[in-house]
Structures are given as C-alpha cells and as structure tokens.
Amino acid sequence: MKITVFEQNGSGQHKITGMEQYGTGIEINEIISIDESLPEFVDDPEKYITDSFTADLVLDYLTHPDLSHYLVSLCKKKKISVVAAGKKNEDAITPFTCCGLGRYRRLGAYGEQFGFPEYRVELDGNRIAVLEVLRGAPCGATWDIVNRVIGVNIEEAMSLLPREIQYLCTANPGRFDPISGKSPVHHAGYVHRAALKKAIDEARKV
Questions:
Q1: Secondary element (H or E) of residue 20
Q2: What is the DSSP letter of 87?
Q3: Residue 61's beta-bridge partner residues?
C-alpha cells in the first residue's frame, strides 16, 4: 500500500517515524512538506499543492485549513481516500485523533494496523504478564509504552498506561472536543485505557 503524506514544518514526522517502525505492508512513497511562512488566508493553494502525486492513501497533516481543504478536494477528484485527523471535512475521514480512527475497509493495510488501539493481554494472577499490540497509534506510542506496563498489577496499569500515553502524545492539547470536553491528549489516554480494559476483560475469560 502506497501512502503519500502532506505536512507543514515537520507536523507529520513523529507519525511517519512510528509508521515506518511499526507498520508492515505499507510504503510511504512520498512526503510533501510545505515549510514556508503562509498568509492567514491562502487564495492560491495550487501554488503549494499540485495534482501530480499518486497514492493509495493520503495522510493530511497540514496545519493550514485552506491547504487541507484544497488537498481533500484534489484527492476526491483523484479518488484517493484521505485521513485528516482533527479536521472537519465531509470528503475525508476525520477522527478526533489519529488513535481514534475506526476500521474502514478502504484504508487497507494502514487501517488494519493504525487507529483505535487494540491489545492482547495475558495475566499472571493480578499482573500484566504479556501485553501485545494488535493495532495502535501511527505515532508509535501504543507500542512504546508496552514494557512500562508489563509486570504491573491491573489496578496500577489502568492508570499508568493512559498517563504514559499522554506524556508521549504530540497532539495539540489546546484543541478541545466540544462534545466530550476532552483535549486530543486526554482522548488519546482514554482510548488506550479503554483498549487495555477490553483486553484484560477478555484475558479473564480464558
């Protein structure tokens, strides 16, 4: 699966590193970086984004709304799916955070591996003996905290894991969801805690 990434001033680098480290069956074939200073309103987005790119999936990490909107319109014409976390656009898939992405069949190998986290847990009494990542955040945080949780008792793990995720989260903490009242950083902690709880509940059934 070939992925093209659009970013501004390194806004996608953390996630690119995570995808390259933990992803399989995907290739980031092009990174288009727009690093120059931009006006508040961009009247000529085609100056910065051409339609020459090709991909199975586009990841939109652009920070300027005019550029992001134009990119999505281009992808619609080219029939390329776009994931644009934290944005509002009916022509793109727009989870609140990258780790809040649900499963979409058209996202292929990327959607199978990245998005709302999923764990597999093995317990040793009241402690986490094994913590395996089945699906996680493209930034890699879902994998990076595993060794910090193994060996910890369940009650402590339920507070430790989301806290460690929040330390690693690079989302803008000032962008609050008007419905839940959570910032992206809090949301990242919440979805990982929910994933851990589900995995623990499943492990207890065995």
A1: helix 13-22
A2: -
A3: 7
Architecture per CATH, domain 2-94, reads as: 3-Layer(aba) Sandwich (3.40)
Half-sphere exposure of 123 (CA within 13 A, CB side): 17
- How far apart are the C-alpha atoms of 49 and 67, rounded to whole Å? 8
- Give the residue, 177 or 142, on which the prediction is more confident: 142
Closest CA to 100 of 167, 159, 169, 155: 169
Tokens of 74: 């281009």
The two three-digit tokens of residue 165, written as one number? 């995720």
- Under a CB-based contact definition with an 8 Å cutoff, are residues 119 and 133 in contact? yes
Structure confidence by residue, pLDDT tens digits, 80-136: 999 999 999 999 999 999 999 999 999 999 999 999 999 999 999 999 999 999 999
- DSSP β-ladder status, 57-61 and 81-83: parallel
Token duo for residue 88: 């509002």
Residue extents of the structural domains in the chain: 2-94, 118-205
Please state the pTM of the whole predicted model: 0.92
Tokens found for residue 32: 């288009």
Contact 3, 59 (CB under 8 A): yes
In this structure, are strands 118-124 and 57-61 parallel, antiparallel, or unpaired? unpaired
Q: Which residues, in sequence order, are CB contacts of 130 under 8 Å at separation 6+?
A: 120, 121, 122, 150
